[in-house]
Write a structure and sequence with these properties.
CATH class: Alpha Beta
CATH architecture: 3-Layer(aba) Sandwich
Number of domains: 1
Oligomer: single chain
InterPro entries: Proteasome_assmbl_chaperone_2, PSMG2_sf
CATH topology: Rossmann fold
Largest sheet: 10 strands, mixed
Order of helices and strands: EEHEEEEEHEEHEHEHHHHE
Region (Disordered): 228-247
Strand content: 25-35%
Number of strands: 12
Number of helices: 8
Organism: Haloplanus salinus
CATH superfamily: PAC-like subunit
Distance between the termini: 39 Å
Helix content: 25-40%
Radius of gyration: 17 Å
Pfam family, one: PAC2
Structural class: alpha/beta
Keywords: Proteasome
Length: 247
């Protein structure tokens, strides 16, 4: 049975913003939300039990406790939620997952910010381009923080695409930030760009990103195995793609 199992009744939220961090191109969403949760000391708020998610339990090094692979973390002082996932969501489960999470978000007055990478090679000194799209009046918010629209037509696929499709169908307010990311490897610099130029301005908070950029090599090595799994199962990967690929 699909449900969001809230663990912390002592955490009070008032129309929070949700940052989604499903694994995808460059692992940009996962890197960004993991960094956000750790930097702000966010509390493990809820477990996500949606139909179709892998029936597995995860554990952390140095800890005895098992947990759900998809979890919500909360920062009540900033009215903020972060969705952290240790597993990809399969294509056959994406729609059910989107319905489960999307309906909960709407019922809980949660405003989602979805994250996606678009595979692009770039020079080392070149900052990754950042774009924003959305529905339900998101354009005004993106314009206010000077996040530009994409320069070419495209689509967002994978579970993030399913979540955005749900928002379009239901007319719910949702934003998606799209950042250029190296498709072959975890891309901490692209994740830092999401936080520094997109999420931070939208939330009107300062997010330190030095840990991501200064330790990029170590982060790439630590996350290499998950990135390889995502490349081997491209359909499960949340990513933005130019529409020309399908014409």
């Amino acid at each position: 049975m699909s449900r969001i199992d809230v663990l912390r009744s002592d955490v009070s939220l008032d129309e929070p913003t949700l940052i989604e961090g499903l694994p995808g191109v460059g692992l940009v969403g996962k890197l960004a939300t993991d960094h956000l949760a750790e930097t702000f000391g966010m509390a493990h708020y809820a477990n996500v039990h949606c139909e179709g998610l892998p029936p597995v339990a995860t554990y952390a090094g140095g800890e005895h406790d098992l947990s759900s692979p998809v979890r919500l973390y909360a920062d009540p002082s900033r009215d903020l939620l972060a969705l952290r996932s240790d597993v990809p969501v399969s294509p056959v489960a994406a729609l059910e997952f989107a319905e489960c999470l999307g309906e909960w978000a709407a019922g809980s007055e949660v405003t989602p910010i979805y994250l996606s990478g678009i595979g692009r090679e770039r020079e080392d000194a070149e900052p990754p381009a950042l774009y924003g799209v959305g529905t339900g009046g998101a354009s005004d918010e993106l314009d206010a923080v000077e996040v530009q629209p994409p320069t070419e037509s495209g689509l967002v696929s994978g579970p993030t695409g399913a979540l955005l499709s749900h928002a379009v169908r239901t007319g719910e307010h949702a934003i998606c930030l799209i950042v250029e990311a190296t498709p072959q490897f975890p891309d901490p610099e692209a994740a830092a760009r999401l936080l520094d130029a997109g999420i931070g301005p939208l939330l009107d908070v300062e997010i330190p990103v030095g840990e991501l950029t200064e330790h990029a090599a170590e982060i790439r090595q630590a996350k290499r195995r998950l990135a390889e799994q995502m490349r081997n199962a491209e359909e499960t990967s949340s990513q933005a793609r130019p529409l020309g690929m399908y014409q």
